[in-house]
Fold this protein.
Amino acid sequence: MSAEVVESRAEASTLARESGGRLATVLRDVRLLLVALWLGGAVFFSAAVAPAAFAVLRARNVVYANEAAGSIVTRTLSLLNTGGFVLALALLLSAFLFRQSASRRAFLAETVSLAILAVATGVGQWVIAARMLQLRAAMGRPIDDVPVDDPLRLTFAAWHGYSVAALGLAILAAAVALLLIARRKGSFQALGAGLKN
């Protein structure tokens, strides 16, 4: 084999590793961006949107302020939970592309945190929020007209607590995933080699 052929094969191999490394970096950055966007949205919703909806409508003495604010929060939370569920599944699937570039412990921690994010947002949307909507419908009138000691309203308050806990757990899981994805820098030759083949 001539020296030129060996040299051109070495150059081709180097280019393949570099392009695989660049692709891996882009994929990691996209994963990082997506989890950061969801996490920021979830924190903003919890700290600003939900409390502001109730505070503003009550301060303006809006008729059925709690009912109206609850409707706003329910619709927004639905988007947040559904988006978090889909995002977590996508990030879980893509985590396996990066399996060889992370330690076993880091890979396990990332997949567990993403699984918790998926479960927490899924349960928050299709179990807890669904039950809360059933309770509101069973009340038969705006929640503002239901006495505070009514059994349905007390049950609703308990489920609201579960909803807050589920979203809090999802936020913690997303924060862990964010940190683990952000820490995964450095060598991506394994992914580049896998994508090349």
In short: The chain has one domain: 3-196. The two ends are 24 Å apart (CA to CA). DSSP finds five helices and no strands in the chain.
